[in-house]
Amino acid sequence: MSIHIQDITKRFGSFTALDQVSLDIQDGQLVALLGPSGSGKTTLLRILAGLESPDQGETRFRGGGAQGRVGFVFQHYALFKHMTVFENVAFGLSVRPRRERLSRAGIRDRVQELLETVQLGWAGPRMPDQLSGGQRQRVALARALVIEPEVLLLDEPFGALDTQVRKDLRRWLRHLHDQTGITSVFVTHDQEEALEVADRIVVLNKGRIEQDGSPVEVYSRPASAFVYQFLGQVNRVRGHMRDGNLEIGGATLAVNGEAPQEGARAAAFLRPHELQVGLHSVPGALPALIRRIHLAGPYARVHLEALHDATELEAHVSQEEMGRLQLEAGQVIYALPRRLDVFPDVPAPQDADYVI
Amino acid sequence: MATRKGMPGFRLTLGLTMVWLGLLVLLPLAALVLKAASASPAQLWAVAASPRVLASLRLSLLASLAAALVNLVAGTVLAWVLVRYRPFGSGLLDALVDLPFALPTAVAGIALTKIYMADGWLGRYLPFKVAFTPAGVFVALVFIGLPFVVRTVQPVLLELPPEEEEAAACLGASRTRTLLRVVLPHLRPALYTGFALALARGMGEYGSVIFISANLPFRTEIPPLLIISRLEEYDYLGATVIACILLVISFVLLFALQVLQQRRGGVARHV
Amino acid sequence: MSELRRTEPRAVRLAAILLSLAFLGCFLVVPLAAVFAEALAQGWRVYLAALRDPEAWSAIRLTLTATLAAVLLNTGFGLAAAWLLGKFQFPGRRLLGALIDIPFAVSPVVAGLMFMLVFGAQGWLGPWLIGRDLRVAFALPGIVLATTFVTFPFVARELAPVFQAQGGEQEEAARMLGATGWQTFWRVSLPGAKWGLAYGVILCSARAMGEFGAVSVVSGHIRGVTNTLPLHIEALYNEYQFAAAFACASLLSLTALATIGLKAWVGRRRSGLEPTPRSAP
To answer: Looking at the structure, do residues A90 and A8 belong to the same domain, yes or no?
Structure first.
């Protein structure tokens, strides 16, 4: 079933949660609605579910049965506390009108099948409070899936779980989606989660869509400064525009993207792995002081302070390179940006509220 | 396709509640108020200022006040003992606190009378008369109001964070100091509430008082009794006037309580 | 380092405990004991005869009927009111809560008077009722109404905070799974609040059985017909039939003891599962 969202606007009092949002979700896609709190992602999901109604605009579901069954998974599971796991999962089947309802045996089989799918075949007689968070969320998923929904909606499904459990369940959800092929939309504020799980990421900010694309697109070719900063770590440097290039601390560097006007101050972004560290000066490299080095992990994280204007930078250096360069805190090195992106609407460089 | 799947039943429950409230509460209340309003000021004054009515109001107010004060102190101590000390059998004692609530007022009334009569189980040991005097009224109202303070203070005590008392002790405060300056402020809203509830209850009490008071005119009559005697004389207007006075007093009391709770951020009685 | 003073000195504790025991004993235990003592003062024969008296029986029946009616009505409407107050936000919600509490603020005798003014012979509906040969005042309906009024808030006040604390997610989940409004209420919301409901019903029935002042005004004191058990006790007492009066009183005392036992038991079941409202009994 595919979903077509047209010009949805939703206001709560004077706060605009969604502002003319339009979106198309294809059948079988796994879409992430990604954004910070207040971006409207949960509101959009709840409108899709029918739990809220938009002030303007409409949603259309195409290609499914007349029913349009929607499965919904809540962040805090919303399991029925006074029912067993089995009864929870069976609920969607047991409330059907008599004509449509399966037989007791039919329900039992179906529920057991689903519990096996979520690897909780043994948990049927247990009460929700006897299960761990990860187990409860799997029950919630089973409960939503038992009614064979055409669309699956998940509201920050792993938000309430421990990091390791979150990682495991993420992978598990992707696997489940590949098996069932149900059109799914999930809301998250965790970019790592979105990048790892989704076929497509819709980045929302302040009720508007900032970018809509595949994980690679959104990460490597961000459409705006907001998206750049929201997905992945970011270095930010300041300089002036000169002949379409950025002038920083004596160096002149080529930039990508729509450049601000000639002579204007500009801010440019680059990822930590796009900042190359060397012991010798080369054209375009910025001299910087090494403040701190974190060696533990898949790569070394080198915290730098640019000498020309004390900007803080971070470079990711492979362990191999580290071995070769023998870097130490207090050392002055030369940092060469391999790529710089500028955006026209970046606010004045003095502001301090950007997110790494 | 997306239909509104909000919380069901708003219109139904709103309708039901309004109808029920209207018929059962607002309609009779309106009848009372309108009846009183139909009286001329002279008639109102004649009833309200009559010596018997004034005497009964005075007795009711004073006895309720005194009883509520006693319950304030005793109730707090009781709640403290039940929550903090948990002596043997405190489960039983805790349940017993509900007795004045669960026991029909008439039963309480005759039992208390028998006990406090001159030759009664307790009356014989007391050097002064209790039954058939204002003191008897006082005793009955203490009985009736007993659960109110205890039950409002208990939950607060249960949720009191022990860290605050521990912090005070670490900082060198004596136990008395700690109790007064750390614990008491937490309890204060509950104490006000319990006191006001006990007071309001005492003013309206009928069944447990009329037996032990003997209803001696000008001495031990309470306003509810006067309402009934007026009714027996078919003086509906007089009864209504007295009833409205009582109503005004309890509404003022509860309104004051609400205001106090708002200002001190106390426990809200209403949902 | 000496141990920090984190609780009262032993002497104080002992004194407090003894004082509390004395207070409870004096005001609660002694009267309770007196009821049974006086009931049996003239022996078992008199005791049983009092309970077998036809007027006593009619009083018992009347009390039970009125209590049942009041509890059913107030449970039904209390559920609706609690649902409304607990699950929805709307302008006037606090006012509604205050209105529901009105019966607590009204003296029982005043409550009885109010109903007389509506249903009595001289009341608003008096002539209309007499015309249709319907009796409300001085009859069962009046007693039921008065009792229902006085016990009106109990179920609503106990349930509303429970409904509110449940939040709305379980209901949303149920609706998403295809449940109708009623199915959601019966299978999801109500079972989650059953102890709060039980508690409210217990409070409601205890109060209804013991109601005296309001019923006193409305019933007309017609022996054998409109005397509830408390009124019957009053009648006996005023005729100096003390043993009989206390015999009937002992019945009500036993019910009261059962009530507080039930209340304690339900209260314990509740405290682990549902939020308890901070309210007076």
So the answer is: yes
